[in-house]
């Protein structure tokens, strides 16, 4: 395995690259762009890279389905860190282009919902066509295939373009969440401000089936911060659920919730426990601290031993 190499969703100039370069270890790694999320993650699976950074969630558009599906299938991978990157787009054009010259635009599909209102107001007649990434859209503009691309302003110099308009976003404080993924190993020690990610599958479809699974978290006081359903490909109505919760797998409330899911689900995939990028610590409800789980176990032991 090439531990000194990190892959990311390319080409050069993507928001994913910008997010990766915020990590201190990125300065000592060879950063290799790949053409798709599956290619990025497969490089880790087959040992070509020691880690990979991919987008997983956007505050406007929601989950990045390619990443969610790749983490749920294939050889197991684990999340070791997350990065939150504020997102604002620039309209990148070839030098000399005016706004009235822009008739065709491109960008990653996730970008479109984040600039839709701006497009309607400023370029109502412009035709949109999606590209593999925002930076790839910039490359297509450089080649003359589109008039403008929505990408990070920092990508302009890479592709010989100019930012015609900057700070474009329909929603203030828009952000994208990225995750650093590697091959499975022991999770890092808890920090007190952690997330745990998992995917679980329903055993059978019946009234309250999802509620039963969520109660494994709820009765132990574990707060969910994200839950999304994804089709399994086995037929209409067959889904798995991708979940992030507060806490670390070494926290008793979290580990017992995962064990509860394992008892009743045909498949559970642990995706990792890792520090939260926002460093928010959970509010642990009374009765769900590790000490209280230990006290309850001690009480049960005394009862079984006839010690009252």
What does this structure look like?
The protein has 308 residues and is of the alpha/beta class. 26% of the residues lie in helices and 30% in strands. The chain contains 8 helices and 15 strands. It has helices spanning 15-20, 37-45, 65-72, 112-122, 134-142, 209-218, 252-264, 290-304, and strands spanning 5-9, 30-34, 51-58, 62-63, 78-86, 89-93, 104-107, 127-130, 148-151, 162-168, 175-182, 194-201, 224-231, 239-246, 268-275. Strands 1, 2, 3, 4, 5 and 11 form a 6-stranded mixed sheet that branches. The longest helix is centred in the last third of the chain and has 15 residues, at 290-304. It is elongated, with a radius of gyration of 22 Å.
Helix and strand composition category: alpha/beta
Helix content: 25-40%
Mean pLDDT: 94
Task: Give the overall shape, derived from the CA principal axes.
Answer: elongated
Compute the number of helices. 8
Count every beta strand, where a strand is a DSSP E run of 2 or more residues: 15
Element order, helices and strands? EHEHEEHEEEHEHEEEEHEEHEH
Measured on Cα atoms, how large is the radius of gyration?
A: 22 Å
The main β sheet shows up as: 6 strands, mixed
Strand content is: 25-35%
Query: Spans with pLDDT under 50 lasting ≥5 residues?
Result: none
Terminal CA distance reads: 56 Å
